[in-house]
Design a protein that fits this description.
CATH architecture of one domain: Alpha-Beta Complex
Number of strands: 6
Structural class: alpha+beta
Largest sheet: 6 strands, antiparallel
Distance between the termini: 77 Å
CATH class of one domain: Alpha Beta
Strand order of the largest sheet: 1-6-2-3-4-5
Amino acid sequence: MDLIFHEKQEGCLCAQHCLNALLQGPYFTAVDLATLGQQMDEQERERMAENGVDSEEYQNFIRQPSGNMDDSGYFSVQVIASALNVWNLELVPYNSTEPRALTAQNAPQEMQAYICNYHDHWFTIRRLGRQWFNLNSMLTGPQLISDTYLSVYLAQLQHEGYSIFVVFGTFPDCQAHGMLLIQPAVQVSQPQRVKIEKSQGYRLGSSSDDPDLERALSLSMGQGSYNEPNRSGSKSDEEEDNDLQRALQESVRESKITEPLPSGPKNSSVTQDQHSGGDEDEDLQRALQLSLQQENNSSDNDLKKALQMSMECLDSDSTAGTSNTNLAEIRARRLRYLEKTNSKSTS
């Protein structure tokens, strides 16, 4: 697999990567393809000028941008066909009625290579040795394709809107082809998708806003089960889990915001801005203060209960008037109860 030439995606230079993967070497650069595109633009301009440079058709033509290339690195199928013509290679539409195309449709595994295009993205499927490989530049490396899967894969690509071309001719010699004839490749791990940053201006980036394009790109990389974006408005399980996690975090944060300070006045509370910069030490200190407050409250409640009982005894004596219990006995009972409660709180 290491001998197979494969270029990973750079910007919007998929046409260059496609051609070099097909020819198995760095045969073309973006400058080479741009030169071919400019030559084709000039030829088209000369043909349009035959009817006169003052004609409406010519004036409309020169106001239009080039259909063969643009500043992002895109190149048309005409430029690719012109580049392959240098090596006496020819492109034939896979779904045409041309006899060679019909042969390819009946026995796709008998061909040498295919070039696939969708939404300005180009990639190569080529046979090396006796095996087929997906050499898509959007993958981190070559992807092995079985003969059985090849025809299904091409049918899927067509269904998704890809234009497929069969490549005919004699390819340049490459070391990978000879080595794979002797020792076939084994796919140890599947290649991953190359991540393209939006800042690079690549039209077919990994976060494309076009779901059809995203599906086709996934299919071109052998991902038959593309997860289509949810258009019904319902959330996936992962999104719901994330929402639940955010809700839990928000509830914890709000509980910290509205929690009263133990040492402050009863009506005072900590505002959100005051707590936003708090750290773990402050939370630990608050927890200790709360635990101490609970212990103090427990002791205070016991003391209040004892005092209340003593007051009830006094009230009972003053209203009855005929009780035989004297004040000295009440005081003794109260002292015994207070000593008992104090011993519990200290222990």
